[in-house]
Specification:
There is one protein chain. The chain has 87 residues and is of the alpha+beta class. The chain has one domain. 36% of the residues lie in helices and 11% in strands. The strands form 2 sheets. A two-stranded antiparallel ribbon has the order 1-2. The radius of gyration is 15 Å and the shape is flat. The two termini are 25 Å apart.
Length: 87
Amino acid sequence: MGLSVDHCLGSTVRSASDLKVADHVDKDGNVVAGDIVLVGDATAAWAKHEGPYDAETVHGVHVQSLKGEFARVVDTEDILREIEYTG
């Protein structure tokens, strides 16, 4: 999907949320709202060219902007726990 949260990834998450791509139909035929999940520590951002914002600030602001409204933001450890990864 992408890596740079302040460009293509942010746009993709917003579009996926708006289009409800994670929604699905359960066995009874009911539409169930799905989660767009953003693994925050698997994304990145870069400092703005000749600007005052470092990469960490750019990344943090964009992830927080997606959190809750457009996606469920988790980190890698959360996902590993959810899938019960023991590797």
